[in-house]
Structure to design on (1026 residues):
């Protein structure tokens, strides 16, 4: 008897055999019929030429070119085909000896015998011309065009960043990159890498044994065109940036200027800086080593990464929180007898009339006033514990964009530090600290740390009377009107707009009235607002701080200036900020004496 | 000695011979694919061909061990083995390592093992065991559901490991079920489903719906207008249109971008040479450039690594195509088809239904792997990343295919023993 269904084996046989036949026909098509795949077995090889796209250009806010590309050429080799070459000729051409040649060949073979690797980076135009002519003498070699970055105005090195060869780890992680490719390493070259790089193209060429290209393989069927990177329109003002770097010569510190209305960063100076042209091309690695060994740390981006105690500028924040928490009104007065005294604790103050009201406490920068104010905020009823009061205060502070990263389009920013109640619980013990234990926070000293960018944003917040856009550096990608959506979400502080007026008025007096600490920065025809500060520096002379905005109504610019080891804010930071504002609002600076004094000031060699 | 002689004289040497030829020729091509003048020694453990020699050696040991095991062992312990591998599939999800996107590996030093490769063997045992149980009829709904469950457990676990290719292999069991009595319509249905799937992606879905509607309207005039027939016709019509809509929906909303891309490349709707299309294009160039007689051993220029990624694993067939040309490729395909037909032939001579069903499972799994792998290197199937049996570089796949095949050879030898 026949087993049930055993006839079905024939169906299976038929399926197996017919699919085998289909595969056979596909082979016949690919290998015997379609001539586009024909490559004569031993004479022709295919070369996969990568077409590198032009990297996107970078402009300033007025359309001035900041970064462009210049062609450079790498000499590539495919070791397997580099046979019977004129070794001596090549060595002479490149100015290398035979040992170096062998070493380079070996390195290339270890990477791969069958695929290209860089033999010599960025050969000169003369060598390029010569090799291109005599390529038949050097089978296995060819020239690959790449782009170098150039900076027509050598400014904003930290912000623009630089590109360099991609790391081996990155090539494994992201298959787009091959060894020898360039990638943005810092600054906006890094944060906008995806937009700037464009897309590589591929050309499959037939090459004969004499290393001569015999045209497109398969009529270009497998080629793909490269797509150029997108241009970036930054918010930087090239003139203002240039001027800021000029003023900060021979000083350590930074200037950050923001347009309050939009959150666009106008200037981002970190001094000492370097010429961005130094970190491009063949000279990059040598210059990089010099810069990294420099004791003044020119590669360190102070504007985003240095964290200073904000000093008296922080009194503005405490005044605003005090008003919002209704422990202060503009007529509130606190006494000061050369400082604040509480038990054994004393916070010193300079000699001035007492008691002061809110406005005068800012104009004369009274320390005692803010000790009382801070104590009142933290210990305000109905908070049952210091901790709850402190947390409330801290939340207000964070709403000013302090103590946290902006996560904007500049890489490597630091968050600054607004200490938490948990930190003090650990430091003093749980429930064993009170407002007076952390009283230095009231005058912006102690564990508190703020970056120059955050400080400038604080000025912008006050200029706007209570809100800000995340400060950012790129206005548009590709097309001029293509605004980055991430940066048009308004951020509100926890302090209502009405409470800003007394503080703004006080800041106005700081600059406009003869008794104010910022009077030295008073400008003709513009009503400016500001606040000086001094950041205590345990390692040397104090840092000079100043934040400001102008004009008082409809502000166009908000700025923070920090000059390290410069003593009081009024000495250096105020005039520099004032000159920057003059330059931005009027396009030129009239006060040449003041300008001269700032430029000639050298605060580096003395320290 | 007597026992051993008994076993080895009853072995189906044709199958073993085909196996050995494929393994050796596979190794030769792996050697060519990663050949590098600075590492010429074939025993160089730092190179994949050196490692593959170890895998081949250990596979032969495994083969001999399998042949020495008692003939009834695999029948008796089928469910136990199945259970162990299901456990391992769960375990690897929790504690395994991720290699190129699939969390399906156990790493032991330099070497990595993939339980999903072995799960095919274990599932095949369980299916054979279940369907060979006395009084089981595949026509019963309960049998169908239980069979589906045996398949669904490993498939869903492998899907969770993000290894879609290995999960799709289980579709191959449709041949086994067909041979055991599942309605022939299932094969036709499968074929229609695949064709409709690709048509939906190629042509606007409303055009297809309109065409289907037209066809069914014509059919409607031809059938005898009995209530039952109308009912069936309308049912099929609704199912087909529903399928077309859901394919479109799944494609647009459920598939991951990289999966979509692979399908688009296959359909010729996208020719992104740098991403999904890269491998396939390079592989087609390599195979095509081989011509009639190929470029000769080690003379390939297109298939050296860096041109075709995964050259020694999933894309090993293009080295064959380039260096051995049409002649070599057709011989390899011929060898596989011969092996498959031999397995079916041997399966049909089994007296125990367990051995027969198991044999069909072996053939089906191998068939799926060979057809999909070779098709994807020639641009006929999407790149789903499954190895070419016995050929591709990799320990897990070689070991598991060796076990899969030699358990069957052992069953066959056992049949003769019983005489
Ligand atoms: Zn005072």
């Amino acid at each position: 008897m026949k087993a049930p269904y055993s006839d079905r084996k024939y169906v299976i046989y038929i399926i197996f055999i017919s699919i085998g036949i289909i595969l056979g026909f596909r082979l016949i098509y690919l290998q015997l019929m379609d001539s586009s795949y024909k490559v004569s077995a031993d004479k022709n090889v295919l070369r996969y030429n990568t077409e590198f796209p032009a990297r996107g250009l970078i402009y300033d806010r007025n359309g001035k070119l900041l970064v462009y590309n210049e062609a450079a050429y790498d000499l590539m080799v495919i070791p397997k085909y580099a046979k019977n070459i004129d070794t001596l000729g090549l060595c002479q051409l490149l100015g290398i000896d035979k040992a170096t040649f062998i070493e380079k060949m070996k390195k290339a073979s270890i990477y791969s015998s069958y695929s290209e690797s860089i033999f010599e980076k960025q050969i000169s135009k003369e060598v390029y011309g010569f090799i291109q002519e005599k390529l038949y003498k050097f089978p296995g070699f060819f020239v690959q065009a790449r782009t170098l970055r150039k900076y027509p105005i050598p400014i904003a090195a930290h912000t623009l960043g630089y590109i360099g060869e991609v790391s081996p780890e990155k090539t494994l992680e992201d298959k787009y990159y091959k060894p020898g490719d360039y990638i943005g390493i810092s600054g906006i070259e890094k944060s906008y890498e995806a937009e700037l790089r464009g897309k590589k193209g591929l050309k499959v060429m037939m090459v004969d044994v004499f290393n001569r290209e015999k045209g497109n393989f398969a009529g270009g069927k497998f080629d793909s065109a490269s797509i150029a990177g997108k241009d970036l329109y930054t918010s930087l003002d090239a003139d203002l940036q240039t001027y800021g770097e000029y003023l900060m010569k021979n000083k350590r510190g930074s200037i950050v200027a923001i347009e309050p209305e939009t959150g666009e960063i106008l200037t981002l100076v970190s001094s000492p800086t370097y010429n961005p042209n130094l970190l491009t091309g063949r000279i990059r690695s040598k210059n990089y080593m010099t810069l990294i060994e420099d004791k003044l740390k020119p590669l360190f981006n102070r504007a985003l990464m240095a964290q200073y105690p904000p000093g008296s500028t922080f009194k503005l924040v405490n005044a605003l929180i005090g008003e919002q928490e209704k422990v202060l009104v503009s007529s509130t007065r606190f006494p000061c007898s050369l400082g604040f005294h509480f038990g054994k604790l004393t916070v010193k103050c300079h000699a001035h009339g007492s008691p002061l009201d809110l406005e005068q406490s800012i104009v004369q920068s009274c320390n005692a006033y803010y000790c009382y104010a801070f104590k009142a905020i933290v210990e305000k009823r109905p908070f049952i514990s210091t901790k709850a009061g402190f947390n409330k205060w801290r939340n207000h502070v964070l709403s000013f964009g302090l103590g946290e990263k902006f996560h904007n389009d500049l890489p490597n920013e630091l968050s600054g530090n607004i200490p938490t109640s948990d930190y003090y619980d650990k430091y003093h013990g749980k429930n064993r600290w009170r407002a007076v234990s952390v009283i230095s926070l009231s005058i912006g000293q102690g564990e508190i740390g703020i970056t120059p960018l955050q400080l400038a944003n604080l000025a912008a917040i006050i200029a706007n009377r209570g809100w800000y856009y995340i400060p950012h550096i790129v206005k548009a990608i590709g097309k001029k009107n293509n605004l980055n959506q991430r940066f048009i979400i308004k951020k509100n502080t926890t302090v209502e707009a009405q409470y800003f007026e007394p503080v703004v008025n006080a800041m106005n007096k700081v600059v406009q009235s003869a008794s104010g600490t910022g009077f030295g920065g008073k400008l003709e025809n513009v009503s400016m607002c500001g606040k000086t500060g001094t950041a205590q520096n345990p390692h040397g002379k104090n840092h000079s701080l100043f934040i400001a905005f102008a004009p008082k109504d409809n502000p166009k610019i908000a700025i923070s200036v920090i000059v390290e080891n410069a003593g009081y804010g009024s000495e250096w930071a105020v005039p520099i900020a004032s000159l920057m504002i003059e330059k931005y609002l009027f396009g030129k600076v009239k006060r040449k004496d003041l300008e001269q004094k700032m430029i000639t000031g050298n605060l580096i060699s003395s320290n | 000695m007597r026992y051993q002689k008994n076993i080895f004289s009853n072995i189906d040497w044709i199958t073993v011979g085909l196996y050995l030829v494929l393994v050796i020729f596979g190794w030769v091509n792996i050697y060519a694919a990663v050949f590098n003048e600075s590492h010429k020694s074939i025993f160089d453990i730092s190179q994949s061909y050196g490692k593959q020699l170890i895998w081949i050696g250990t596979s032969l040991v495994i083969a001999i061990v399998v042949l020495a095991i008692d003939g009834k062992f695999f029948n008796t312990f089928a469910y136990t083995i199945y259970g162990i591998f299901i456990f391992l599939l769960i375990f690897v999800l929790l504690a395994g390592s991720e290699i190129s996107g699939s969390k399906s590996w156990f790493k032991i030093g330099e070497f990595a093992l993939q339980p999903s490769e072995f799960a095919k063997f274990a599932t095949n045992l369980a299916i054979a065991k279940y369907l060979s149980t006395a009084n089981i009829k595949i026509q019963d709904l309960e049998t169908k559901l239980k069979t589906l469950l045996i398949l669904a457990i490993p498939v869903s676990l492998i899907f969770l490991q993000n290894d879609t290719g290995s999960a799709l292999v289980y579709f191959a069991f449709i041949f086994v079920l067909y041979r055991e009595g599942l309605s022939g319509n299932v094969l036709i249905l499968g074929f229609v489903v695949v064709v409709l799937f690709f048509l939906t992606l190629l042509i606007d879905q409303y055009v297809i719906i309109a065409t289907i509607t037209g066809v069914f309207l014509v059919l409607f005039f031809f059938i005898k207008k009995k209530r039952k027939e109308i009912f069936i016709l309308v049912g099929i019509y609704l199912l087909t249109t529903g399928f077309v809509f859901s394919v479109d929906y799944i494609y647009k909303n459920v598939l991951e971008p990289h999966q979509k891309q692979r399908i688009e490349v296959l359909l010729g709707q996208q020719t992104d040479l740098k991403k999904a299309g890269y491998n396939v294009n390079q592989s087609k160039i390599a195979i095509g450039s081989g011509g009639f007689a190929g470029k000769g051993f080690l003379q390939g220029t297109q298939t050296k690594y860096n041109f075709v990624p995964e050259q020694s694993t999933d894309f090993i067939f293009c080295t064959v195509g380039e260096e051995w040309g049409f002649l070599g490729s057709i011989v390899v395909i011929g060898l596989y088809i011969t092996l498959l037909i031999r397995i079916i032939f041997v399966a049909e001579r089994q007296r125990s239904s367990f051995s027969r069903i198991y044999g069909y499972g072996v053939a089906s799994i191998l068939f799926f792997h060979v057809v999909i792998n070779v098709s994807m290197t020639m641009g006929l199937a999407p790149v789903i990343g499954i190895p070419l049996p016995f050929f591709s570089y990799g320990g897990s796949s070689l070991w598991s295919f060796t076990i899969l095949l030699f358990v069957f050879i052992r069953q066959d030898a056992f049949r003769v023993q019983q005489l």
